[in-house]
């Protein structure tokens, strides 16, 4: 199954963009996923390519028009699960990324200005998703984050299922620290920093126990909210 993503945007040239490099780029080249960027402005009804208007009730900013977005949506088949990138949406997490990565088709609407007319969101039952508690200039960067989080979970994208299964947020914990050669690193200030002895011991049970303890300690310190859930789940 190919993971197909449709992007409704005023800036289609942003895609695939950074997604054309690294893991997502190789997956795209290998046909594991596809991206179809649809320019909403192509569906404007006047010579000025107008896609927005002033909000009813007054207020600052402009609102993207329902009729224009609707025509853009109707041009896509199949649409699959429909997502609107929005700071008021539920926050993207690893569980949701895994869920979305199992879909065959996604259609992601990227808003600009003050957002889009609520009627089009309601009519098409767009699912609102946020990448964090902050506001961006538009939905495109959020869409890229969402796509990246999904594509790397596709079979064959990373090359080793164990890699993704042991990452942060997969088991309710943050990931343990990593080290590589040299075994002793001479820092610029002259200090000598060594890799923890257990990692070069060859004792896999001890290594696993050390990694779990480190993951628990990091989670407890950096994300007490996650640690509380982890403890409650036993």
Q: State which percent range the strand residues make up.
A: 15-25%
> End-to-end span in angstroms?
36 Å
By CATH, the architecture of the largest domain is named 3-Layer(aba) Sandwich
Shape: elongated
Uncertain residue ranges: none
The CATH C-level name of the largest domain is Alpha Beta
Mean pLDDT: 95
**Strands across the major sheet, in which order?**
2-1-6-5-7
Total strands: 9
User: For this structure, what is the CATH homologous superfamily of the largest domain?
Assistant: SPOUT methyltransferase, trefoil knot domain
Determine Rg (CA atoms, Å).
22 Å
Q: Please identify the structural class as seen in this structure.
A: alpha/beta
Q: Please work out how many helical segments DSSP would assign.
A: 8
The H/E string reads EHEEEHEHEHEHHEEHH
Residue share in helices? Answer: 25-40%
CATH fold call of the largest domain: Alpha/beta knot
Q: In oligomeric terms, what are we looking at?
A: single chain
Largest sheet, strands/sense/barrel:
5 strands, parallel
Tell me about this structure.
The protein has eight helices and nine strands. The chain has 234 residues and is α/β, with parallel strands linked by helices. The model has no long low-confidence stretch (mean pLDDT 95).
Write the layout of secondary structure elements.
Elements: E1 3-9, H1 22-29, E2 33-39, E3 52-53, E4 63-64, H2 66-74, E5 81-91, H3 94-101, E6 105-110, H4 118-124, E7 127-130, H5 140-151, H6 161-165, E8 184-186, E9 192-194, H7 204-222, H8 224-232
Parallel strand pairs: 1-2, 1-6, 5-6, 5-7
Antiparallel strand pairs: 3-4, 8-9
Helix pairs in contact: 3-5, 7-8
